[in-house]
Amino acid sequence: MGWLGLDDTDYLGGGCTTQVFDSLLQSLPSWVEVGQPRLVRLWPFAENRTRGNAALAVELRCEDESTLIPILDAYWSSVIEPLGGFVSPSTMSSRVQVTSSPGMVWFSTKPDEGYYRKAVREEVTLEEAPVATRSWGGRGQIGAIAAISWPSDRITYEAIAWRKPQNYLLPRMIDEGMIHEIDAWPEIIFSRDPRKGTSLIAPRGQSPVLFGVRARTSDGAQKAASLLVGSDGTEEIQSLRVFLTNQASGDHLGTPVEAELLALEVHPQRKHARLDTDIGPMVAFYEGGPLNKLARWLIPGDRFQVRGLIDQHGVLHIEQMKVTSYGPRQKQRPLCEDCGQRLKSMGTNQGLRCPSCRRRFEDGWIDIVALPPFEGWVEPSTDARRHLARPLDWVGEK
């Protein structure tokens, strides 16, 4: 009995670590008992990440692992190792792309969760990782070890279907009517954007994945995926597998921190909000919808609480926000004490006068109460949340 982990077989131009892992598991002899594979999302700003930030792990059981290792050796050499060394430039990001560097590890005994807890929140190295019983390859070992270390205390499921190779360059065919139907199931999560009415289960760009259906239960994920696959409106698939995942776990976030806004800069075209605060710089992207709207409403002196991830440049990417105190946005002239009319200025240094009864008053202003556009905690729209983000209405659940 032991744990197998894999990561980093993909790059922007192609490849798919989940597909490679599925093929590996299918190739194992019948005397190997395969547990439920795990898909584990990690820190999204890792310097050497390739296309995604997910790694894979699975528990394998057999009578003698010494007979299993040569099989893994052979599969590594013939299938996985040749996937290294590929790189493709990005048309969406200025980040320097790195070559794929597959890594696979085997642990006879599952390591503790410490490495995962760190890898989901910050940059980690292979040097600080638990030492595997057997290891293959390069940087992918980092994610593979972190995936094995995941304690699976907050879980969801994802059923992933892979395309037939001859369809890779063709538009994806998924029955939209069936997606709408399964979205109504209580156990299915994040399958459609309720604002736009669009599907969220198909990846963008060149990927062997046809779709990934996320759910609160394994059975729900399996049934929903099977319904989609069985529809005449969905293309024929190569394979299907349900993964246990840390998606929607919120494991990447710590406790809320409070900050005071010092200055706010809104991008003139993209409308991203950059916040300079007393505890450091923060950003709320336009795609975040209500979160971005709330951030743009703030003025210097306002105080708020946030939760988010700090990137490699020290900028906190806001994922949840709550305004705790705020100042007035506008002022107006007071009302006449006698007749209730709004006072008007008589000119510079000449005080105020009621336009109705003509009574005069000293110059002055009163604050106009302006409430934040949202009360309590705010999060991005469904389509703009990280895979790891735990919805606010799930907070408090185990």
Overall residue-averaged pLDDT value: 91
The main sheet comes to:
10 strands, mixed
Strand content: 25-35%
Q: Judging by the overall fold, what is the CATH architecture of the largest domain?
A: 2-Layer Sandwich
Total strands: 22
Summarize the amount of helix as a percent range: 10-25%
For this structure, the CATH topology of the largest domain is Alpha-Beta Plaits
Distance between the termini: 28 Å
- Any idea what the radius of gyration is? 27 Å
Structural class: alpha+beta
Shape: elongated
| Low-confidence runs of at least 5 consecutive residues | none
Total count of helical runs of at least 4 residues: 7
- N to C succession of SSEs: EHEEEHEHEHEHEEEEHEEEEHEEEEEEE
Tell me the name of the CATH class of the largest domain: Alpha Beta
How many structural domains does the protein architecture include?
4
SSE layout:
Elements: E1 2-7, H1 17-27, E2 33-34, E3 38-41, E4 54-61, H2 65-80, E5 103-107, H3 114-119, E6 134-137, H4 140-149, E7 156-163, H5 176-183, E8 188-189, E9 192-193, E10 198-199, E11 209-215, H6 218-229, E12 237-245, E13 257-266, E14 273-277, E15 280-284, H7 290-297, E16 303-310, E17 316-325, E18 330-332, E19 344-345, E20 352-353, E21 360-361, E22 366-368
Parallel strand pairs: 3-12, 15-17
Antiparallel strand pairs: 1-4, 1-5, 2-4, 3-4, 5-6, 7-11, 7-12, 8-11, 9-10, 13-14, 13-16, 14-15, 16-17, 18-22, 19-20, 20-21
